[in-house]
Amino acid sequence: MPITELQCPRCGTEVKMGLPMGATVKSVTAAEEPEPSDDDGKKLRALRCRNDHEFAVVFEL
Ligand SMILES: [Zn+2]
Question: What is the pLDDT of residues 28-45, one digit of tens each?
Fold first, then answer.
């Protein structure tokens, strides 16, 4: 599983996450409850940076 480095949208801290092979990150949002996006093959994953900010990553397979 490839490891992708993302930045927390609130503090810029680098956060590493594993994405499924071939996944493309579409957006990183600080929204606590992003709108569901189960269309178009988009997936949502909740992450938390080391400063305890929750954010969400939308990626596409
Ligand atoms: Zn943060």
Answer: 999 766 566 566 778 889
